[in-house]
Amino acid sequence: MIPFVKAHACGNDFLIIEEALAGRRHADLARKLCARNTGVGADGIEFLERRPNGELFLRLFNADGSEAELSGNGTRCVAAWLAGSEGTQQVALGTHGGLRTCKVIEAADPLYLIESEMGVPRVMQRTIELPGVGNIPGAMVNVGNPHFVLFVDTDDFSAHGKSWQQLGSLISTSPLFPHGTNVEFVRVLSPSEIAFRIYERGCGPTTSSGTGTCASSSAAMTLRGTERLLTAKAEGGDQRTVWPDKDSVMRLTGPAEIICRGEVYAL
Questions:
Q1: Could you give the CA distance from residue 97 to residue 92 in angstroms, rounded to a whole number?
Q2: pTM, rounded to two decimals
Q3: CB of 215 closer than 8 Å to CB of 184
Q4: Residue 219 is inside which H or E element, if any?
Q5: Domains plus CATH for the chain?
Q6: Could you identify which of 52, 132, 199, 204 might form a hypothetical disulfide with 183, taking C-beta atoms 3.0 to 4.6 angstroms apart as the criterion?
Q7: What does the pLDDT look like over 204-240, one tens digit per residue?
Q8: Each residue of 38-77: pLDDT tens digit?
């Protein structure tokens, strides 16, 4: 039996498991335990490693068993769990996408509002070409993991004659991105507000994404001239980003909620 915690950030849900219990079965555990009908169900697993020097490090595995650099929402879920179980109000969490510091702003266990330092986004305008679709203008954004952001004007976020889910799948798995990419479809609602949909690499459509929020926001600030403090609206709820200038760290504020704790068979 493996103890786990389940948490979500705006509906983007994760299991949290101590790294010491993984037994080098990270990918296998992710595929089995994240399955919606035959497992616990989640978008991914955050494996928390407690190193001898006191440092904490996260390895994120998506529902399909692939490993990703990091998840902004998943990192926030771990910070919420540590706040509730150990009273940690601020924590530095290492990831393959860089160190992320999370601070609890409000707490009403099991719900937490957390501000995270998300690194310095890198935005590069780019047009890609997909067979059967044509040229797709957008931006490649790196916030510790890869994103392709495109802007849309449609109420249903469709673009280039396809639903956002269809086009997101094509872009995410395109050979243009050998390691895959997350894809965001962004509508600018006002100078201070955007809405977006996310097709997540290794998972598919999700209700929210922390790094996707940051990628969408930084692209809107850089390419659409929005304000440097934005509200980003996803299906799972709103998050807030602040990015003073292109060389500064972006800060992301959003909720995280502990759903349950339990034990699961890991056959």
A1: 13
A2: 0.96
A3: yes
A4: helix 210-223
A5: 2-116+255-264 (3.10.310.10), 122-248 (3.10.310.10)
A6: 199
A7: 999 999 999 999 999 999 999 999 999 999 999 999 9
A8: 999 999 999 999 999 999 999 999 999 999 999 999 999 9
Map tokens 């601070």 to a residue: 103
The C-alpha atoms of residue 215 and residue 144 are separated, in whole angstroms, by: 10
For residue 120 the two structure tokens come to 């310095």
169's enclosing H/E stretch is helix 164-172
Q: Which pairs with CB-CB distance under 8 Å and at least 24 residues apart come from 39-44?
A: 39/264, 40/4, 40/6, 40/15, 40/262, 40/264, 41/13, 42/6, 42/13, 42/14, 42/15, 43/12, 43/13, 43/14, 43/200, 43/203, 43/206, 44/14, 44/15, 44/68, 44/71, 44/74, 44/202, 44/203
Written as one letter, the residue type at 190 is S
Is 131 strand, coil or helix?
coil
Q: Distance (Å, rounded) from C-alpha 157 to C-alpha 144?
A: 25
Angle subtended at Cα 105 by Cα 100 and Cα 107, rounded to the nearest 5 degrees? 115
Tokens of 22: 């993984």
Give the span between the Cα atoms of 220 and 168, in whole angstroms.
18
Rounded Cα distance between 21 and 179, Å, is 28
